[in-house]
Amino acid sequence: MKKVLTVGIAGGSGSGKTTITDLLKKRFAGHITVINHDDYYKAHHDMTYDERAKINYDSPDAFDTELMVEHLKKLQNFEPIYCPVYDYTVHDRSDDVRLIEPAEVLIIDGILVLAEPELRDCMDIKIFVDTDADIRILRRIVRDVNERKRTLESVISQYVNTVKPMHEMYVEPSKKFADIIIPEGGRNIIAVEMIEQRIQSHLES
Description:
Structural class: alpha/beta
Strand content: 15-25%
Distance between the termini: 12 Å
Strand order of the largest sheet: 2-5-1-6-7
């Protein structure tokens, strides 16, 4: 059986991870499966909205990484999974699940995927997207206000209280585990083309 090429893409919030992932999905449509760490935030149905809003979502403890590793191994064995779906508007896992079919290439996308040894062990290629902090916070504000219906005040508060300190504690140090560091995310066309060549080589092998 052909081996699944597993690529981990990490980096700070707003660094451009998803842009790179989307470029690869478009380039290799039908040959790539993507699994997002964010979908594996732990469920907190027993808490009120206000209580859930105070959780530190930028700590490794916020994620059900054990379930994610279990799902990754199934996808690597060409088995489909039912992935949980996280609802950012209510800070909780929804009741929905999403069917994810396996493919020859598996991308793991998330700010902390290189900070978790169990996830790193599942990867063949580890990528860190390195983007200036000012650009990352501006992108995060636009995304969270427009797409996740957050207030500007809540986005800034979350950034100051958890996002920035957790980035410095967990995300930035995880760069040392990367095989490839990409400055400026999806705008770095040369780096993206190098990754595309590696994936193309795998698909042709």
